[in-house]
Design goal:
Elements (H helix, E strand, L loop, with lengths): L4 H25 L9 H27 L1
Helix pairs in contact: 1-2
């Protein structure tokens, strides 16, 4: 399996939506007493998304080789 334009498009759309969700979750926490709205948490969430997508791609590539 090789990296194609549709695969890159799906990757970027997934990353964008998940990062957007993380940002809105942090914004929501601004209004919750006892919680903090921190850009570092958004960055950590987005890094987790990258790791998750990377792991899914790796597993997909390995499964296709078999």
């Amino acid at each position: 399996m090789k990296i194609t334009k549709p695969l890159v498009k799906v990757f970027l759309i997934s990353l964008g939506w998940c990062s957007f969700y993380a940002a809105t979750d942090e914004w929501r926490q601004f209004f919750v007493p006892g919680r903090a709205c921190m850009w570092q948490d958004w960055l950590i969430d987005t890094a987790g998304v990258l790791l998750g997508i990377g792991a899914a791609l790796l597993l997909t590539f390995k499964a296709k080789k078999r």
